[in-house]
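Lecture notes, continued. The same structure-token format from the folding unit now serves as the input rather than the output. Read the line below as a description of shape only.
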């Protein structure tokens, strides 16, 4: 066996550079590049290996470990999980900054390789700078925090362990059912230690992503459930996008006249004006989708994990005869809510079930009801798009102007948290595939700006717009600097509504007086944050990084700023001043939250009683 002596870090870089995936005959280089912030735990080991020029991995300097990891997540998401980034940090705080992003990747089933530096495996310099020590187990470091948010976790404590660790990392990263965050902890001494690696470890390795077939029995069971069902409903999840089953689902819905409701991850797989598309479902769903869900006697869940926002905390499906079919490559997700599971790829499953239903002559009994529901909802969206106020711009008005007039049809919109995802799931009208990019499995504040960078790296010929609230922007916007440094133009629209207004709405809806959720000065007399709103110049902040920046307070200024943004060649920040509390309402949805059972506040007691009455009506599994 031929070998070559090299350090563990050099071997890791060479191994990553040799990984490819193949699906449906299309071969893609799997690891596009590396995001990193070097520290003493990585700069002389992995940093030296990356500095060599004998590999094709592009290195991008991040400016916050969580932010660069979000960019990596967005890149993989926009590439439909066919390409990934690795993210590199030092030990201690640098590594821990990535834990939140690892949770985002795992919850959303997005492949990202995390490479945090670690304490010395030899233990001789212990405790090294930034090392977390535990007196009960010296093997435990800060990196154990990655375990609950990783789909695969390993520590490479000897250079020869890299071979099994690397192959297992690729096994999980390329598995449609099990993918998510993969963490390989790299002790800083081991990164520089050498080993005689077999050359076959570095040969081009193609990971074949085979479509999970649907068995004949599973297809027959699923098709049989349609018998006698007059009001079926399809839920389109992110698995539809990753399977590439967009056309199959649209055709299925049209052929059998079954309405489609969308999750945040599935939104945009079917264009908004498809005759059967009712838009978003659940807590942030449309009125027409929620009404269809309420009365559905069969729910066909395709590629979604049925989170509480989708199911309305299990109250969304109120027909006592409702049954659920789940089509999912992940067996864990397929068994949720007492469903009939179809563990299979969405594309092949829809094709097979469609043939069986066609042979049986199946068709729903909706008639023109779906079109009536759509017409009613479209009128409501048009109303929200045209709201006027002498006090300022409503958030939905801004979204309408952007969606209908000011953005290109192929532009990508990126979002994650606050009131914007709810408004966008309800009112945004995607006209082309892969233009709606929403992280809502973790709903992680701070994802948006970094994710816009990742999406732009994945789709350099499209304009990308981060739709971010002021609260989320303040939390994390460091990768705006990365976009300037790399000359990768992104557009950041900061919706300044003066605080965490969606949480303020939730608070007030449960009978609690607004407390600690708005950006206000502390009042000297009350001692509480009830003073005037804090005026924040987000445009000035953008300019300080080197971005073009504009402040808008009305539609005319918004129009002018968007036109200038299209002409600008560097990143743009538009500070959009919107009216607080001008977001959409619940549209007959419900979300279960921990309302206090005991309170001196009568409004809270009433909210608790209301919550209990809803819980009694919700499905129990």
């Amino acid at each position: 066996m031929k070998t070559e002596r090299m350090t563990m870090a050099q071997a890791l870089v060479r191994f990553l550079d040799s990984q490819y995936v193949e699906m449906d005959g299309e071969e893609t280089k799997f690891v596009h590049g590396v995001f990193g912030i070097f520290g003493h735990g990585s700069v002389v080991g992995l940093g030296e290996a990356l500095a060599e020029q004998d590999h094709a991995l592009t290195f991008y300097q991040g400016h916050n470990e969580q932010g660069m990891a979000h960019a990596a997540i967005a890149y993989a998401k926009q590439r439909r999980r066919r390409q990934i980034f690795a993210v590199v940090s030092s030990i201690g705080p640098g590594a821990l900054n990535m834990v939140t992003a690892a949770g985002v990747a795992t919850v959303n089933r997005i492949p990202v390789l995390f490479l945090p530096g670690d304490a010395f495996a030899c233990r001789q310099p212990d405790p090294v700078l930034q090392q977390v020590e535990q007196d009960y187990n010296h093997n435990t470091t800060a990196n154990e925090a990655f375990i609950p948010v990783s789909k695969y976790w390993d520590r490479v404590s000897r250079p020869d362990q890299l071979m099994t660790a690397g192959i297992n990392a690729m096994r999980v990263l390329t598995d449609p059912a099990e993918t998510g965050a993969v963490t390989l902890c790299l002790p800083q001494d081991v990164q520089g230690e050498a080993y005689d690696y077999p050359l076959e470890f570095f040969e081009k390795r193609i990971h074949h992503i085979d479509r999970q077939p649907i068995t004949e029995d599973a297809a027959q069971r699923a098709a049989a459930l349609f018998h006698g069902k007059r009001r079926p409903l399809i839920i389109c999840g992110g698995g539809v996008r990753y399977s590439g089953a967009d056309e199959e689902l649209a055709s299925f819905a049209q052929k059998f006249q079954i309405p489609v409701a969308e999750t945040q991850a599935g939104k945009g797989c079917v264009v908004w004006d498809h005759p059967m598309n009712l838009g978003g479902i659940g807590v942030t769903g449309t009125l027409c989708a929620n009404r269809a869900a309420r009365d559905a006697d069969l729910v066909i869940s395709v590629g979604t994990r049925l989170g509480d926002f989708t199911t309305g905390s299990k109250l969304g499906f109120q027909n006592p005869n409702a049954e659920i079919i789940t089509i999912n490559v992940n067996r864990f997700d397929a068994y949720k809510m007492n469903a009939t599971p179809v563990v299979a790829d969405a594309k092949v499953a829809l094709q097979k079930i469609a043939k069986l239903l066609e042979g049986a002559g199946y068709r729903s009994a909706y008639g023109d009801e779906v079109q009536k529901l759509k017409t009613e909802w479209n009128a409501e969206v048009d109303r929200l798009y045209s709201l006027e106020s002498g006090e300022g711009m409503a958030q939905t008005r801004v979204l309408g102007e952007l969606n209908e007039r000011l953005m290109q049809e192929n532009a990508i919109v990126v979002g994650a948290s606050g009131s914007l995802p709810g408004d966008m799931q309800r009112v945004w009208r995607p006209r082309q595939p892969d233009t709606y990019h929403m992280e809502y499995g973790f709903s992680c504040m701070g994802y948006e700006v970094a994710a816009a960078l990742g999406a732009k790296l994945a789709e350099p010929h499209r304009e990308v717009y981060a739709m971010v609230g002021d609260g989320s922007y303040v939390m994390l916007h460091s990768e705006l600097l990365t976009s300037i440094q790399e000359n990768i133009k992104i557009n950041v629209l900061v919706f300044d509504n003066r605080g965490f207004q969606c949480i303020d709405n939730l608070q007030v809806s449960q009978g609690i007086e607004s407390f600690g959720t708005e950006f206000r000065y502390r009042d000297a007399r009350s001692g509480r944050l009830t003073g005037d709103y804090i005026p924040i110049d987000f445009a000035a902040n953008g300019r300080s990084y080197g971005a073009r920046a504009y402040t808008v307070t009305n539609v005319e200024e918004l129009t002018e700023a968007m036109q200038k943004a299209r002409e600008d060649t560097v990143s743009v920040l538009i500070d959009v001043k919107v009216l607080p509390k001008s977001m959409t309402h619940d549209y007959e949805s419900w979300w279960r939250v921990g309302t206090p059972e005991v309170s001196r506040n009568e409004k809270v007691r009433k909210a608790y009683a209301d919550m209990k009455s809803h819980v009694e009506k919700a499905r129990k599994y």
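Point for the exam: The radius of gyration is 25 Å.
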